[in-house]
Amino acid sequence: MVKHTINVTIDLRLLGMRLRDRGKKFIRVHEIAYELGTSPKTAGKILVSLAKLGYVIKWSDGVYMVLDEKPVKYTIVEKTRDL
Q1: Partners of 56 in the β-ladder
Q2: Residues 16-62: pLDDT tens digits?
Q3: In the chain, domain spans
């Protein structure tokens, strides 16, 4: 019996950098699925992982916005008055 699928490992950081380098601001789940040859469900999981790494943010159903650079996390400190 011939197998039509294989398991692969994706370097998410490399994929995130390639998405930034391509110059488009938005990416659809179906585009990732087509380019990587995966199901839309798997492509969605990949984009969720890229969002956790700071490469994209969810824009709407099935659409993610590619961020130009990794967002910096700021800590808000309240200034108190010396009495």
Answers
A1: 66
A2: 999 999 989 999 999 999 999 999 999 999 999 999 999 999 999 99
A3: 1-83
